[in-house]
C-alpha cells in the first residue's frame, strides 16, 4: 500500500496513522522525496480501506501489490517527466537523444564530440570517466579530472552530461558536474549505490542488469525512489542470453512492458544491446517504435581508434544520419498512438 501524505500533516496525525496501519498488521516505511511524503505499507492482511482513508493527513491511498510500489503506474498514472533544466527533458511523449563516446578520452575528443552534437541539435552527451571493464588491464577512464574538463566544455555548449557512477564514494565528488548519473548494467543490483543515489537531487538512469529481469530493474529503481529521489530513468541495454551472434540480446519487449508497469521514462541503448556498429541504427529505430522515450548510443570521430567499445560505435556521419532517422521515426510513431 502507498499512502500519500498531505503537505502539512502533523507529527501527531502521522503517528496516529502509523499506529492504525501497524494495527492492521502492516509494516510501515516512511519515504520523503523531493516531491512528496509517503508511507509504504507492507503486509498481507485484508482490510477495509476506509479504515485508513478517513484518517487526517492523507492525500490519497493506493493498494499496490507488486514488489515495487513507488515506481509502479498503479498509483501514479501520470508519466514522470525528468526536467534537466534549460528546456531539456527526458519524458513520455518526447524523444531524448543521448550520444557520445563509450569513454571520455581527451580534451580534443570532447571538443569534437560536442561540435558534432551541436551540429545535430543533440542536447545530451554520454561518456564514461569511470569505466567498468571486463579486464583490469583495459582503459578504465580519465576519472574526476576528465569529468571536470568535460563539464566545462559541455556547459559552454549548453549540453547535459550522462555518465556512469560506479561506487558510493564517487557520488559526491561527481555531483557538481553531472546531469544524469548512469548506473551501469554491472551495478544494477548494487543496493548500497542505489540507496545513496536516493539521497541525491539529480536524475539517475538505471540500466538493466546483464542477466536482470524487468521486475528486478523496477525493484532497483524502487531503491532509489524510496531513498528519496524520484528523478529516475530506466534503460534497456540488452541482456545475456544463449545467443552468441550479438554482444547482448536487446530485449525490446521490455519497453512496452516497462511503460505499462511504471510511470518512469524508458531509454533504449542499441549500442550495448547488439554490440555491432552496422546494426546499431536498425535497433535504435526499432527501439523508437517499441515506445521508448529516448535512445542512447555511442559515437566517436574515429570509432576504430576509440579506447573502448569501438566495434559498436558510430562515426559522426552515421550518427548524424541516425539522429535524423530517430526524429523521423519518432514523428511517425506519434501518428500511431502506440500505448
Ligand atoms: C556504457 O554505457 O558504456 C556501459 C558500460 O554500459 P553498460 O553498463 O550497459 O554495459
Ligand atoms: Mn560502452
Automatic annotation (TrEMBL):
Organism: Belliella filtrata
PANTHER family: PHOSPHO-2-DEHYDRO-3-DEOXYHEPTONATE ALDOLASE (PTHR43018:SF2)
Record-annotated DAHP synthetase I/KDSA domain positions: 91-329
UniProt xrefs under InterPro entries: Aldolase_TIM, Class-I_DAHP_synthase, DAHP1/KDSA, DAHP_syn_2
Keywords, sorted A to Z: Transferase
SUPFAM superfamilies hit by this protein: Aldolase (SSF51569)
NCBIfam families cross-referenced by the UniProt entry: DAHP_synth_Bsub, PRK08673.1, PRK12595.1
Gene responsible for this protein: aroF
Protein name stated in the entry: 3-deoxy-7-phosphoheptulonate synthase
Enzyme Commission number(s): 2.5.1.54
